[in-house]
Specification:
The complex is a heterodimer of chains A (about 190) and B (about 180).
Chain A: H1 3-10, E1 18-21, H2 23-32, E2 38-39, H3 48-58, E3 64-69, H4 70-74, H5 78-86, E4 91-97, E5 100-101, E6 107-108, H6 117-124, E7 128-132, H7 135-147, E8 152-157, H8 168-171, H9 174-185
Parallel strand pairs in A: 1-2, 1-3, 3-4, 4-8, 7-8
Antiparallel strand pairs in A: 5-6
Chain B: H1 16-25, E1 28-33, H2 40-48, E2 54-57, H3 61-71, E3 77-83, H4 84-89, H5 91-100, E4 106-110, H6 126-129, H7 131-137, E5 142-145, H8 154-164, E6 168-172
Parallel strand pairs in B: 1-2, 1-3, 3-4, 4-6, 5-6
Classes of the chains: A alpha/beta (about 190), B alpha/beta (about 180).
Chain lengths: ~190, ~180
């Protein structure tokens, strides 16, 4: 499935939730669904899931969605165990799997095509984990996935879509962080 | 490893219960930690059963940097408790999230291998000697906590870090007493 098509399906389901996204998925999402509750400042590669855990624990009344990448999550696999141990019911973890470090030259990730993120999440102690290989099945199942108590993980087998611009200056800007801070305080 | 029994009798050690009281007085609600032998008995074990603090156990210290940074967006105060080895392992996350993003990452770092009677810069341990210079190079303010009187600064240092949205590091130079 194309990543941007999957994000278009997610768009109407995302309103008050915090979305923590990384790299090309983030750049796509910023165009498809620009909003102040997009948490764009993860700073260091691999850290999205840990930011999401902090947000989920500090904002238990709000759902937190992570749009992670396979290369990113591989840098922070221990976070699966930390998240499962903390057990935030409001955290839903999507892993967009394309088997490459897309913004770093498209080199293959270790274990590409063999690694089982669903198995890793289940073994770590996530409440539930599943995978979507087909856009129609994703469209049919994603609302149910989001309705389940977390922490849950969905693996998305994706390919690139439109070449959305990589706006690094914005995601690292003080303005982006302040927009998120204000949106969080708006309740 | 040297033990307290090996040290001069007149050395004073900080009280873990007083450190925990200072942390709570500063409004800290979450402690994020990878265990550290310097602070294990005096801090981590007692606070792990403290009903006023929530302990988040993580597998690796850079997770804690992100967790504390993310929590700060709604002013939820947190402390990252770890060993200097974890600090070293987390430098890129601290650089990005704490320094570049100007978020209040408050860290409490046990100096494993530091001789209680020596300053960190005089330690025979290379891994201890380099910590303060590295923090200075990163423009991260720090405070050495190793006597009972040092504890009086903890509350204000944490409050100031959150007021100014800057990262701060406490260095625990002697094992706190339980």
């Amino acid at each position: 499935m194309r990543r941007d098509h999957a994000l278009e399906i997610l768009k109407p389901l995302v309103d008050e939730q915090i979305v923590v996204a990384v790299y090309q998925t983030l750049f796509d999402w910023m165009v498809i669904h620009p909003r102040d509750l997009n948490y764009v400042a993860t700073g260091a590669m691999g850290q999205a899931s840990s930011h999401a855990l902090g947000l989920a624990l500090a904002n238990p009344q709000r759902e937190v969605l992570v749009f992670d990448g396979d290369g990113s999550l591989l840098m922070n696999l221990g976070s699966l165990v930390s998240i499962a141990n903390a057990a935030p019911a409001n955290l839903h973890h999507f892993v967009f799997v394309n088997g490459v470090y897309e913004v770093n030259g498209a080199h293959p990730t270790p274990g590409a095509g063999k690694l089982d993120f669903v198995g890793l999440a289940r073994a770590a102690g996530y409440v539930d984990a599943l995978e979507f290989t087909d856009i129609d099945l994703f469209e049919a199942g994603v609302a149910d996935f989001l309705a389940r108590p977390g922490p849950t993980l969905a693996v998305m087998h994706i390919e690139a879509g439109e070449p959305y611009p990589r706006d690094y200056a914005y995601i690292h800007s003080a303005a982006a962080r302040e927009s998120f801070r204000r949106a969080l305080a708006a309740d | 490893m040297t033990t307290k029994a090996d040290q001069p009798a007149d050395l004073q050690y900080p009280s873990g219960s007083e450190i925990i009281a200072a942390i709570k007085a500063a409004g800290v609600k979450f402690v994020v930690s990878v265990p550290d032998i310097v602070t294990s008995d005096g801090l981590l074990w007692p606070l792990s059963s403290d009903p006023e603090l929530k302990l988040v156990r993580v597998c690796k210290e850079d997770e804690g940097v992100s967790i504390c940074g993310a929590m700060s967006y709604n002013n939820t105060r947190a402390l990252l408790l770890m060993q200097q080895t974890g600090l070293m392992d987390s430098l890129n996350a601290i650089r990005a999230i704490g320094v570049d993003y100007q978020l209040p990452i408050c860290m409490m770092v046990g100096l494993q291998g530091k001789e209680p009677e020596l300053k960190p810069e005089d330690s025979a341990s290379y891994g201890v000697r380099i910590i303060e210079p590295i923090l200075r190079a990163m423009d991260i303010p720090s405070r050495l906590i190793e006597t009972p009187s040092d504890i009086a600064y903890i509350r204000n240092d944490i409050e100031q870090a959150y007021r100014s949205s800057t990262t701060f590091c406490f260095l625990i130079g002697r094992s706190p007493t339980p």
